Amino acid sequence: MLKDTINYMDARFQRNTGNLLTWVVMVLALGGAQSCAPRQTYRGPPPAPNRAPVIAPSPPSAVSQLPAISQPPPVEETIRKPLPPDAKIQEQDLPTKGTRTVLILKDWPHAPSTAEGPEVPGLPPSGPLPDDSSLLAKITSNTPPQRAAALRLTEEARKLLEAGDASRALGRLERSIAIDSANGYAYYFLAKAHNKLGRQKESLNFLDVAEARLAGEPFWLSEVHALRGENFRTLGMTERADASFSKALSINSGNRTATEAMTRATSNPAPGPR
Known about the structure:
274 residues, Serine Threonine Protein Phosphatase 5, Tetratricopeptide repeat
């Protein structure tokens, strides 16, 4: 009986083994068949049709909502008319301060004939100017105390010079400059005092200082040039004296000193070379 059992088990094992081998062979055959079959290529999804991008409308800007600004009409170019050759300049149009300017007077026969330079503002045209010699009239309620004291001393010196006392006038003028060194009138009368004392070179030096401080006052600037002409005439420099007198008259044709000097030169011309 044991032998029969063993034979039964052996037969059944062999049968199961055959079935297993059969299944293995079938699986291998199926796998080989699939490997030999042609593979299908992968195709992606079809591309989307070309469509124009949709742009959302932008909201209206604040600038576009502003009303249109009308352009101004074109400005027509104006034609500038040339000024008349001898235009008169009014005294009120002149600046208060100016620079030193050399003007040539052509009315006098002995005036030097040189070309005129460029015009510089600050001086009026040739013509008589009102008398501005009163220094006390320049003292007002707004005048600083030092300036007022210097002007009073200068006025006292002017009266002493008219009386022929140049030495005492020098003392007043030196005190005036010590109080107010910017007092151009004091320098002018210092030059006049030295001229009266026969010190022409010292007078010319003080006139240079006075001219710089009185450049914006035509009446006094004319007086400076006239006194300079007197110094040059005393020193024997006739041509330079005539030039200075001409400058004085070109600024103020009513300058008495320059008028008398040029009248004498016209009536008594200098003798020419023999």
